Amino acid sequence: MNIILVGLSHKTAPVELRELLVVPDSRMGEALNRLMAHEGIREGMLLQTCNRVEVYAVADQIEQGFSAIQEFFVDTHLSVSAEQLMPRLYCHAEDRAITHLFRVASSLDSLVVGEPQILRQVKDSFQEALTHNATGVILNKLIKKAISVAKRVRTETRIAENAVSVSYAAVELAKKVFSNLSARTVMLVGAGEMAKLAAQHLVNHGVHEVLLTTRDPIRAADMAARFNGVSIPFDDFRANMHRADIVLCSTGASHYLIGPEDVERAVRARWNQPIFLIDVSVPRNIDPDVRQVDNAFLFDIDDLESHIEQNREERRLEATRAESIVKDEVEVILKWLQSLKATPTIIALRKRADALRQAELQKALSRLGTLTPEQQEAVEGLASGIVNKLLHGPLVALKSAAQSSNGFVYIEAARLFYDLGQGLPEQESVNVEDVRDGTDVTPDEMASAPAEEPEQERIPRRALGL
Amino acid sequence: MTVAFLQLTLGLYFIGILLSLVYLLRRSDVLARVALAATCIGFAIHTVVLAVQVFSGEVGVTFHKALSFFSWSLILVFLLVVLLQRIYVLGAFILPIAFLSLISTVVLPSEAPVLQPMLQAVWVHVTLSMLGAVGFAVAFVAGVMYLMQERLLKSKQFNVLFFKLPPLDFLDTLNQRSMLLGFPFLTLGILTGAISAQVTLGSYVSWNPEQIWALVTWVFYFVVLMGRVTVGWRAKKAAYLTIVGFAGVLLTFLGVVLKGNGISVS
Predict the structure, then answer these.
(1) Fewer beta carbons under 10 A from the terminal one: N or C of chain B?
(2) In the predicted model, is pLDDT for residue A462 greater than 70?
(3) Closest A-chain CA to B234
């Protein structure tokens, strides 16, 4: 039983390749089944975010497991060839795989170090794997541990302070124009994901009213429900722009939708009250000449990026502290894994039995008083005879368990029955339900993470703009 | 005695200014708090000096006293705004104005106090005018800060100053409120000035530079306020206009100084 990882991320592969490998939520069960059908794969989990696609697995043989998962990736998409994929994949086993998982969950391997979405994505992937019975004792423990490590990193370092997501930068900038967002109106032009995310942040900060406009009426209704907003026909949105204090623009249009004259008109209608425009679409939808309009403040995606650059620098410093936490925690989990091996368990069991035998023997001998050597030998023989006979069965079972792939179940049972101690301290038994309810979310996390997104509309992983 | 106290006050205000300026470039709030503490102590001493001057029977109104009162009221407003809104950055902008007006009472030659039958009216005139000037000084500062923040936002310079300066709408509101506060005082100040001129000189206006600039300033602020209410002269435009308007206030002060013999209505 070996923990292995095969995957690719923003560090090794371009988005064109990564996106081909993403399995849609609806077909996750099928994909996991396909993964588990490979010989020698005992447990598996598929972790996919906008920046990575990775398979974590417990395999009988390391090399065999690697090639099974590589095969799985090649089969995922018809247009992906093995030659194209192989050089992009990284394969790690045992402690390196565990370290990688912990670093990913703690957002140390993210494009934007410290971004908060990754933990949720890990939890979601874990949930999917649980639902489809793909994980077992080892991965369950490992991933729960990864989640608790991520939280430790979050609380003990300042890695997640100062939001660095593009969508949240929009909120920070808006607050430099409007001191109080609660009396403000935001207009959402288009249904781009990043703009939706930014709008969600603004709503979380108490924005009073949301106006929506998109060409697609179904999406408009959908978004109106999500933000409790007012839908405006797409052809009329320019005429209504003066109603908005903040305009968030993210459409798929290939030309400018908002020009300087539209903004000038809006500012005039607002009696020169400032208007704040954010254009997160690429290609841009708001004419850059809008910058020249007085009392209009336009920020495009690059401006938001440069705003968050400083915060990123601070995070990089905190990341070194986080790395040492990860290192400590890997040690802990390795200890637990070690405990699942047969030999140490057999030795521990023998030691324990021997200690018990010695102790009982001492007690008996001191009560019996002076014995002849023959008598003493008989008593000692009795004790060791019972112990050896009683241990024979378990020891044989453990030795054969060491050869079988799911032997650790017996080993763990033996440790429990004979009170040999677990590899992990008690508080580590995190329940995945506890983890998901988000009760321990820090205020900053609330601010920078879409923690309150409606349940029915989970934010698609690829839409996070990271 | 009062001179020593005034010097102490000036010293404390100066410390406040220096720390407030350094604070502009630092992330920590500590400097600003020390600056605020120094200003508070200075303000307390300043209050005592003013009280002694008023109640000790020193007769006569001098331009020095008027400037000292202006400085005191400006700091009072500053302390109120900072304590209520925690916008420490204001100190770097308001304190220098208060300091300059107070130091001019030490630097400028002292003049003969005005002794005349309408002393009461002159007192009222000076007090009201100075309160008007305080309102416009705060509006001026808000305007300057608005333009700075506006420029930083437009040019996307997300530096320390950008993080320190308050949001634009706060500055615009501060600008508006301080103008609304200053304008009635200026109006009443001009009226009482005219009345005392009528009594002592027999005519309401004598067209000296002080009066001319006071009237020009009044008309200007009147137009600015009307423009704000009727055609939306706010935000950037209001910021520019209040900066120009404050120049009028300064020219009125200058008119008083040039007359050479202090605040009289002669």
Answers:
(1) N
(2) no
(3) A272
